[in-house]
Amino acid sequence: MSLLNSNPPKRPSCCSFSSIAELYHSFSGLFLNSDGYIDSKSGHRISTFDHHFFHMCGITRDKARLFMPEEKEQILTLTVDFGEYELVHGGSRARDIPSAHATLLEPDEVWCENPIADSAEWVYIKEFDSKPYPFTVALLMQRRDENGIIVPVSSFCCKKNRIKAWRQSRQVYP
What we know:
By secondary structure, the protein is α+β, with helices and mostly antiparallel strands. The protein has helices at residues 20-32, 52-56, 68-77, 92-95, 97-105; strands spanning 37-39, 45-47, 59-60, 86-87, 109-112, 122-127, 135-143, 149-158, 170-173.
């Protein structure tokens, strides 16, 4: 039984990749087309940049922070494997970037002031006809130091018994 949507769509097919370069090209095709803007049905214009690749896909390395100007050339040359880069959470965030994009574009709900989303101002939620994870949660923030642009922070799939935690505080869409 669905919770947010009487007829939830099928979850988009997972992203398949065998190297960090291939994953970057998939991310780029989804998030950086249209000049890096996602005009969400929520009314937000979401700006995405190439450095969002690291946190939207869950990419780490043995450095405290990754900076795209320093990493991009190496990422694009790694066409066979992942080199020193690692995927967090077993690669689930990377595989589910099509669901993240769909959630940003057409959320079922948007919440703000969520007490567990410390680094985000908005929680986007979309329900899919998918088990065992019928929801995708996307976190967004406003960069006041960059003319107030809205950018993604993270995204992940969520089970039904965990979605209540993300549906707290004040609903702002629809």
